[in-house]
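Q: How do we represent a protein-ligand complex in a form that can be generated token by token?
A: Start from the inputs.
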Amino acid sequence: MSSPYARPGFYDEALAKGRHRDIVGGRWDETGRAQMAALMDHGLRPDHVLLDIGAGALRLGCKAVPYLEPGHYWGTDASRALMLAGYAAELDARERLDPVQLVEDADFTFAGVSDTITHAIAFGVFPHLESDAIALCLNGLRRFPQLECVLLTVFLAPDEATSHRQKDGVVTHAGRAPYHLSEAALYAMADASGWSLNRDDRMLPRGQVMFRAEPLRPSPSSPR
Ligand SMILES: C[S@@+](CC[C@H](N)C(=O)[O-])C[C@H]1O[C@@H](n2cnc3c(N)ncnc32)[C@H](O)[C@@H]1O
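Then emit the structure tokens for the protein with S-adenosylmethionine bound:
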């Protein structure tokens, strides 16, 4: 348990000090804009329905909620209190989002989230979690029949590297946060849970790498 998010009392203490922006890593406007740009490059339109996995204090939500049709944004996070802090302090367009659509979920079950999700993003989430969280998340997302793609970010490192210095200097690890994994391991994981994966080579904060995953569905003509 090396992730700060897993420390008992972490959210309560930081939220009591009004530090909801710091909890998600600051760079508020820039990172929200970068996520929105990526989603639009990958086809997000106002009539789509977005699931923001590990939504934090709604750094993306502040951009996505005004863009999407009312009710078309859903967020999950290990801390609902964090999402609600962002809702109260940061979101201008509160009438466009019922807070019931901010769902506490630390296990990627997505229980209670609408079946109508068409796009999902998990930005800056997996660097804080052991790599089996990625498989858990991809398996959980299989239940959304209209899901076109999920964008996710990770730190990459060569096979077998226990620690690795990323280009901007941050040191990542195989066995503790911030976590990395090899690109081959990520592709194998996606393949095993029924997703095709494509790397998106845009520059991201701290040297994270974005991937687009699409669910592999049997074509209507395949034999049963
Ligand atoms: C670096 S922040 C990124 C937040 C948001 N995606 C953004 O870009 O503003 C990582 C987020 O992952 C959430 N998180 C940590 N462990 C989680 C888990 N097991 N399930 C869901 N969310 C988790 C944290 O609460 C935090 O909001």
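The first helix runs from residue 10 to 16. The CA atoms of residues 58 and 196 lie 28 Å apart.
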